Automatic annotation (TrEMBL):
Annotated TM spans: 6-22, 52-73
Its membrane topology: Multi-pass membrane protein
Main location: membrane
InterPro entries hit by this protein: DUF421, UPF0702_alpha/beta_dom_sf
GO annotation, cellular component aspect: plasma membrane
Entry protein name: Uncharacterized membrane protein YcaP, DUF421 family
Domain spans labelled YetF C-terminal: 76-145
Record keywords, A-Z: Cell membrane, Membrane, Transmembrane, Transmembrane helix
Alphabetized PANTHER family for the sequence: UPF0702 TRANSMEMBRANE PROTEIN YCAP, UPF0702 TRANSMEMBRANE PROTEIN YDFR
Family: Belongs to the UPF0702 family.
Length: 191
């Protein structure tokens, strides 16, 4: 009967620790997060079969503590973020493929094209900046000629009053990737 309680205890600890580690789909996880999750799964399996539940619970707590510590430090220090979590890599710049960066990522042009098709992009010439993010997703900024018409564009055409500030128009999330760092301190409040 104690075997059943030990199994429940390990599953409860594992569930709580996964909630603490954060909610992400596997495709959004960094390498460190994925390894921690796999190690936790392996440890839970061994704990149930070998009946060493309290040692396993302790090791799981250490794994998650280390993961959360690395995540916290990565938020505070850009160098640690780059080291542990990675940074986006530019693969398209001004409509041109960056083959040296594709080689670093061990990604073929066909794989890049597949990601572009998934995003509804039909041509490299339509992409001003394309990146492979740290989590493996494809990020992009379209060239002016390929951008869809927005409410802001319609407001300009119809001469309606603007609702966005000049500051919002000048900010660009790809600047950090292209220039390898933050231009200014990121405020904790949203504008």
């Amino acid at each position: 009967m104690s075997f059943i309680w030990q199994a429940f205890a390990i599953l409860a600890v594992g569930y709580i620790l996964i909630r603490i580690a954060g909610k992400k789909a596997a495709s959004e996880m960094t390498g460190l997060e994925l390894i921690t999750l796999l190690a936790m799964a392996s440890m839970i399996g061994h704990a149930v079969s070998e009946q060493i539940w309290w040692k396993t619970a302790l090791v799981l707590c250490i794994f998650v503590f280390l993961l959360v510590t690395v995540q916290f430090l990565s938020i505070k220090f850009d160098t640690l973020e780059r080291l542990f979590l990675g940074k986006a890599t530019v693969v398209i710049k001004n409509g041109k493929i960056q083959p040296e960066n594709l080689k670093k990522l061990r990604m073929s042009v066909d794989q890049l094209e597949g990601r572009m098709r998934n995003m509804g992009i039909h041509s490299f010439a339509d992409v001003k900046t394309g990146t492979i993010e740290a989590n493996g997703e494809f990020g992009y900024e379209l060239m002016r000629h390929a951008k869809p018409v927005t409410i802001g564009d319609l407001e300009k055409i119809l001469k309606l009053p603007k609702k966005t500030s000049k500051k919002q128009q000048q900010e660009n999330i790809f600047t950090e990737v292209l220039e390898r760092g933050h231009q200014k301190e990121i405020s904790s409040e949203s504008d």
